[in-house]
Design a protein that fits this description.
four-stranded antiparallel sheet, Jelly Rolls, binds fe (ii) ion, binds succinic acid
Length: 216
């Protein structure tokens, strides 16, 4: 019994199943929020957020940057992982230890021990920004999970199945939540609905998402 919650509603469960192979670890990143936010600022100082262009020519509404040995990029030529930031011609910033350690620990807690990400895509959403339903398929090894850390304004995550037409669930991703999908969920369609406006005490009118992958 936790005295803090005496007479109040019980705290929400720390672990929720999204789908077979997909788990939500509520608040799992909260203890690290200051270090994570500081690290994102340091990454963005070296590799600024930018709005990339998808092969069909549209500009993505979420701004992106990367850290790690490989970064996910898109342009007229397609989607790929690249060791070099095309904007600067330099390697992406190194993955901070706090990122690697947290992603590895969260993956293990979700049932995927030994996760060693080499790529972290950092997404920044302003109110109205969204990410349409897609699958993460540019990685080489689909036995490795995806680990997603949410910071700032809450978002609605859509999580479906292996086919685009499969029904989707809607899950609130809040500041500090970590979602992990692997195994039978690794190639599930997922997306983020248009971000609602709001003011987050730490990050203001913004949502940041860190998506860790083993790309190569
Ligand atoms: C992604 O699918 O790459 C990011 C999802 C998110 O922003 O939560
Ligand atoms: Fe994705």
């Amino acid at each position: 019994m936790n005295d803090l919650f005496d007479g109040l509603d019980p705290p929400p469960p720390a672990r929720e199943d999204i789908a077979p192979g997909a788990v939500l670890l509520r608040g799992r990143a909260l203890a690290h929020e200051a270090a994570l936010i500081e690290a994102v600022a340091a990454i963005a100082a070296q590799a600024p957020f930018r709005h990339m262009i998808v092969p069909a020519g549209f500009t993505m509404s979420a701004a992106m940057t990367n850290c790690g040995d490989a970064g996910w990029v898109t342009d007229r030529g397609g989607y790929r992982y690249d060791a070099i930031d095309p904007e600067s011609g330099r390697p992406w910033p190194a993955m901070p230890d706090v990122f690697r350690a947290l992603a590895g620990a969260a993956a293990a807690e979700a049932g995927h021990p030994g996760f060693a990400p080499d790529a972290c895509l950092v997404n920044r959403y302003a109110p109205g920004a969204r990410l349409s339903l897609h699958r993460d398929t540019n990685e080489r090894d689909f036995t490795q999970p995806i680990v997603s850390v949410s910071l700032g304004l809450p978002a609605t995550f859509q999580f479906g199945g292996a086919k685009r037409s499969d029904p989707t669930r809607r899950i609130a991703l809040r500041h500090g939540d970590i979602a992990v999908w692997g195994g039978p969920a690794r190639l599930a369609f997922h997306g983020i609905l248009a971000l609602k406006d709001g003011e987050h005490p730490r990050l203001g009118r913004m949502r940041i998402n860190l998506t860790f992958r083993k790309a190569r």
